[in-house]
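Lecture notes, part 5. Sequence design as translation. It can be helpful to think of inverse folding as translation between two languages: the language of shapes and the language of residues. The source text, in structure tokens, appears below.
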């Protein structure tokens, strides 16, 4: 069934304005239309590669179908969410990386910014925490503010072997058992359908409610499957709207011409800029609600594109370093560098046409013109003016930037943004001819951790670590 009316959907369309990437606005620092056109064939090939491989589990492209193939799962999630809201005071996600950044991002984007501080009557769900680290202080402090017996823990791990998540699970398992709680009453797993340790654990505990992280969906592309949908539903977020927004953006990106396909144009602009040495991609939302979409995007872009070998097995060292920045806050911290530092960045602005409220600025301090001029405006006007002014200042200084315009922030527009970034990443990976969906570079650190903690099978790795030369004391000052 269609989501809302066509007119409403079209009024909520996220659009791309890339004028500030062109020579019309940047002079010789910008792309000419001819330069951009020289990428048309490459872009069309990337589009075709993604189209042809849509939904292929073996290539980890299952995420492309998530907006369309989850009707039953969504209903199940909504039922579970209802029960969680009725029965628990706290909802805690245990997960890391792709199993945490999506839930954090959606929570921050679509819930009250001080959600946990609101009284229960003003919250749509239980208090919400996402634990994506193994800092012992953080775990201690979490346990100071929740009662495990009154908490639903959503353990999200595709492998069930991630040390961080499983450490957290062992701690809460112990607490639940000590509190005399039946583990399966307070725990929900989101994991692989067949493989992985959580499946075994679930069987041992008598069948823990489990959602499937589909085979062909990698962690960083998983926000639109139960990884992100269950926490979002518990928070009362319109998950059908998220998926409808993703489908809408998918439809908007059905063209092989980058001039008509916003995700393909974003990918092309970034690739063309990277070829000119723009090795840093700044994601700068002008919205506190969108602060954590920058974190989510950073993982997506960094883990997907940072690779040292092409699909043909040729060595390469590609990728662009994503940086998160928050407008206006980071105008007072990073924008000096962006405006006058090296010409090595592309700034993506996420700009809202309409905020959740306007917040009028009262008149006052009339004898102080520096302050008085603000009175009578609104905070919405101010943040929008600062966004426009920063884009102007960067452009004037010859710095590449483009804007994704969001009519207003809601589940439908957030779904569009997520899908746009996922497609953009897949297109960019195809243009770079790399495996966008693996992450071999994070393995070495994991193995070294296992060796340091004495995991069976890692004795050789331990020997390797022990054979490092002794630290030179003169290098420690
Ligand atoms: O994007 C990814 O694949 C990673 O960030 C994983 O999500 C992360 O390492 C957690 O893995 P798992 O879900 O197996 O616990």
């Amino acid at each position: 069934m269609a989501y809302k009316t066509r007119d409403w959907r079209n009024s909520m369309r996220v659009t791309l304005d890339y004028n500030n990437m062109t020579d019309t606005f940047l002079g010789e620092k910008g792309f000419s239309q001819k330069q951009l056109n020289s990428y048309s064939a490459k872009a069309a090939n990337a589009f075709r590669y993604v189209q042809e491989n849509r939904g292929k589990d073996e290539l980890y492209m299952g995420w492309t179908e998530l907006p369309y193939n989850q009707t039953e799962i969504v209903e199940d999630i909504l039922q579970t969410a209802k029960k969680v809201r009725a029965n628990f005071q706290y909802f805690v996600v245990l997960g890391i990386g792709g199993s945490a950044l999506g839930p954090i991002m959606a929570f921050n984007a679509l819930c009250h910014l001080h959600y946990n501080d609101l009284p229960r009557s003003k919250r749509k769900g239980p208090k919400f925490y996402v634990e994506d680290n193994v800092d012992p202080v953080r775990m201690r402090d979490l346990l100071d503010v929740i009662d495990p017996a009154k908490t639903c823990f959503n353990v999200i791990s595709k492998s069930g072997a991630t040390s961080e998540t499983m450490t957290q699970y062992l701690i809460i398992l112990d607490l639940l058992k000590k509190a005399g709680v039946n583990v399966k009453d307070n725990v929900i797993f989101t994991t692989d359908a067949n493989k992985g340790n959580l499946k075994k654990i679930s069987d041992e505990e008598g069948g823990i409610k489990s959602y499937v992280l589909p085979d062909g969906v990698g962690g960083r592309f998983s926000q639109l499957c139960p990884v992100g949908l269950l926490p979002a539903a518990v928070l009362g977020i319109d998950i059908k709207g998220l998926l409808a927004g993703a489908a809408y953006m998918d439809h908007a990106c059905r063209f092989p011409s980058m001039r008509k396909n916003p995700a393909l144009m974003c990918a092309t602009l970034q690739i063309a800029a990277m070829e000119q040495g723009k090795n840093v991609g700044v994601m700068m939302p002008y919205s506190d609600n969108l602060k954590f979409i920058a974190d989510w995007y950073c993982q997506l872009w960094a883990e997907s594109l940072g690779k040292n070998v092409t699909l043909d097995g040729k060595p390469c060292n590609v990728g662009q370093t994503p940086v998160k920045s928050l407008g206006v806050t980071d105008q007072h911290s990073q924008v000096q560098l962006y405006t006058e530092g090296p010409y090595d960045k592309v700034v993506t602005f996420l700009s809202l046409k309409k905020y959740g409220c306007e917040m009028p600025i009262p008149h006052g301090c009339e004898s102080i013109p520096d302050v008085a001029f603000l009175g009578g405006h609104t905070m919405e006007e101010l943040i929008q003016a600062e966004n426009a002014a920063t884009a102007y200042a960067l452009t004037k200084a010859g710095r590449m930037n483009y804007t994704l315009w969001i009519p207003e922030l809601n589940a439908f527009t957030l779904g569009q943004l997520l899908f746009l970034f996922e497609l953009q990443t897949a297109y960019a990976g195809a243009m770079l001819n790399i495996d966008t969906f693996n992450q071999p570079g994070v393995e070495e650190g994991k193995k070294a951790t296992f060796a340091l903690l004495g995991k069976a099978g890692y004795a050789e790795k331990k020997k390797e670590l022990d054979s490092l030369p002794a630290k030179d004391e003169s290098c420690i000052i």
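The translated text above is only one of many valid answers, since several sequences can fold into similar shapes. The first strand starts at residue 15 and ends at 17.
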